[in-house]
Each structure stands twice: as structure tokens, then as C-alpha cells.
Fold:
Amino acid sequence: MTHPSTHQTTDQPDLAEADTRAEEIVARILSRRGTALASTASQHESRESDDDGSLEREARAATRRVASLSTELEDVSEVEYRQIRLEKVVLVGLDLPRSADGPAGSQGSQDAETSLSELAALAETAGSQVLDALVQRRDHPDPATYLGSGKAKELAEIVSAAGADTVIVDGELAPSQRRALEDVVRVKVVDRTALILDIFAQHAKSREGKAQVELAQLEYLLPRLRGWGESMSRQAGGRVAGGQGIGSRGPGETKIELDRRRIRERMAKLRREIKAMAPSREVKRGSRRRGPIPSVAIAGYTNAGKSSLMNRLTGAGIMVQDALFATLDPTVRRTEASDGRVYTLTDTVGFVRNLPHELIEAFRSTLEEVAEADLVLHVVDAAHPDPLSQIAAVRTVLAEIPGALEVPELIALNKADLADPMTLVALRTQLPGALTVSARTGEGIDELRERIEEMLPRPDVPVDVVVPYSRGDLVSRVHADGEIESIEYVEAGTRVVAKVSAALAAELTGAAL
Structure:
């Protein structure tokens, strides 16, 4: 016995209203094409010229796919299927109810629009051209094709009429759903996870970053291998698979089994490489901590302005781009407090809603920079339509890193020059202690520096020692890392009265006369 789905039994006026609302969502999303996010539109030209990343931006722009390469399933090879860049795309999203026990309403539609707008930004960042979009109001995704059968056919017509070569679904598709939807639309179908992985693959620069992204991609690809015709079911004998020649021929492995085995072997190799890189990161982190130099980790949603804010605070010259996930590799810069204390700022990878678990696992060593910090500077895009959901998404990711949520947090509401003043007032009310800043104009930066200095750990062990003149290095460290009350030069050495860290106090006591 079959049970009709909710959307099939809905009254005709409700269906018409849902279609109208979906069309309005699509129209608003398509009207904002051309920038990564609507909130950064007025910064698009100026903010990218304030750093040293022009050459890297040019290199990224040069990796776009040739527009004439066809991607229809019947004439695309397996290698092309895995390696081509996205080009002309149609977006697909669902307008789901906000909660399981309530009807879908305006809030659900707002969530659908915000999520689909972000998907359009992700697609543009990946080098795609968004041609059209389709939104369907449902209680839950269809288990077969994600969309209902009627909407899937409508999607096929939209794809054909627009000349699109890829469909991007705003959700994570099961392998069976992707295959079934591809069979209907006859072009490549990718989900949100695959799109984010593609962006990470384009933007990774360091050896560790590239290895982490490749591992995440292979973990995603493994259960989703698919062949066309008989290409993946053809068997390779022992001579082909093992290279042993006469006497070793046998039924061997099918091509898909061979691919899976090779992927598993590559994944094991990448895990070993990433594990071998961990000590180097620990040494660098340890050398910063031995001072001990306090550290501030800049975290937040992608495209919230973390790199711009770090450039403003330190003059680091980090590449800034109006794109999602422009920064993947952590950057560390030293800076000084007004009282002379030295501390570090670390620019980390941005987060996003439903960040693929494969990426969280692969980037765990990078994300641990946040857990090791003394303070988390949580940068929020105050001009975004839904900044509170971005904050929740960031904290969800940090919850998967042991100790990250225990680090003191300072929220900086960035892009104050673009945000609505009433929105800023409401956010300050909902987020006590948050500061309003603009990395572009410099508004609130001085206050932010003062608050960071207040929240950094201060040396708290009092010492009154005479340090031999031969240990001037210890006195220098007191100047850099401690709070000096008095310095007196006596016959035996330098008398230091100060507050320092416990580790430095032990060294001073050991060296004292």
C-alpha cells in the first residue's frame, strides 16, 4: 500500500502559493549574481586591492574550465567526469518546514532562500555561471530523486532550455539519489558537499592543505563510484591487475573494484603523510607557546572578513577575495599590545553550514589551532541576512574539536559600514560583549585591539630576583613577556621585580644569585 506524500494532497491554492513563493526566491537569488554574497557587493572592487594577493587571485581565475567542453553523460569520459570544472549550472533547493511538528511558513522560506543564496555564492566561487534555480516546497526530500518525480522532469526541461551542463543540489545526496536524478536530467548532478570539496581543491596551496583536501575528496568519492555501460563491470585478469604474467591469470577484479582498492591505498598513504606532517605543526606551535606568547585565533563563517580584519590589525597583507573559502592555510602573524606585550594572530579556514564531515576530519590538525589559542576572535558578517545562524554553524564545527569551545570568545560584528543600524543594535542586544567593527573603514578597530589586550592572559607569578649579567636573555624575555615593576642594576647582576609566567619564573629562580 502506498502513502501519498503531503505535497500531493495539499489544496490547489496552497500549491499555487508555494510555487509563487518559490519563483520569488529564485528571482531574488538570480538578481544577486556577480558577487559571492550580497553583503559584499559594494566592497567587491576596493577590498581586493588592499593586500598582496593579486597574483594568487589571477592564478585562481585562470583555472576555470573551457566553456565549450560538453558534460552530457552519454559523451563524457570517466576521467572528465571526475576532473572537469563546473561551468553552467542550475541550482536546486527544497523549502522544508523549520521544525518537524510545525507547518512550513515564512521562516522556512527565509531559510531556503538564505541557503540557496549561499549555494549560488559557492557555485560562483567554484568558477560556475548560475543560469537558473528551482525550489520545491516539501515536508522531506524524496528518497528516490530528492525532488518529486514531476519536479525532476521540470528540472530536466529547465536544464535543457538553459543549456546547463551541471545541476547542483542544496543538500547531501545519497549515491542512489544522485544516480536517479542524473538519469532524469541527463547532465552531471553534484551536491553541496562535492561543490565545497571542489572549492577547497582549487584553493589549497600548502602541501598539508592539498593532502587534506585530497583525502576528503577520496572519502567522499569512494561510495559514489559509478560507471557507464560495461566499463566498470569489465574484469581484469591477474596479468593486468598484478602484472605476474603466465600462470597467474584469473578472473581478477572488476574495474570498479580495482578503482576502489586504489582509492583505499591512496587514502592510507595520505593519512600517513598528514600524520607525518603533524610533528612539524606541533614544533611551530610549540615554539610560539614556549615564550609563552599569547595567541589569538581568528575564526568565523566563510567570507565574514577574517583575512581583511587580520590585515587591518597586523598589516599582514594576506590575500583577500570576495569569494567563499578564499583562505584555507592558516597564517600566523606577531603583533604588539599597547603595553609592549607580544601576541600572535592566526587566520584560520572559514566555516559554512553543513560543512562536510570529511573536511572536518581532514582539517582536524588545522582546526586545532583554535583549541590551542588563548582567545578566539569570532568574526561575524553583520550585513548577512542571518548572522545568528552563521554563529551557530561555526560553534557546531568547533564543538567537534576537543577543547575549542572552552577557549574564551570575543565576537566582532564585521562589515558595520554595510549593515543596517537597527540590525546592529539587535545583534548587540542578543550578543552581550560583542563589538561592532569594519575591517574596510577601520571603524571600531582601536576598541577591538583594547578588548583583545584585556582578554589575553596576563603573567601572574611575582618575582624579585637578581639575574646574572651573563643571562641577559632572561631579562629580555621579562621585558617581552612579563609586566615589570622595577629594574635595578646592582653589582651582582640585574635586579628584576616583575610578574611573569610560571615557566619563566622557574627559569629566573634557577638562574638567580
Notes: Residues 255-289 form the longest helix (35 residues). Residues 236 and 359 are 33 Å apart (CA to CA). The chain has a mean pLDDT of 75. DSSP finds 19 helices and 15 strands in the chain.
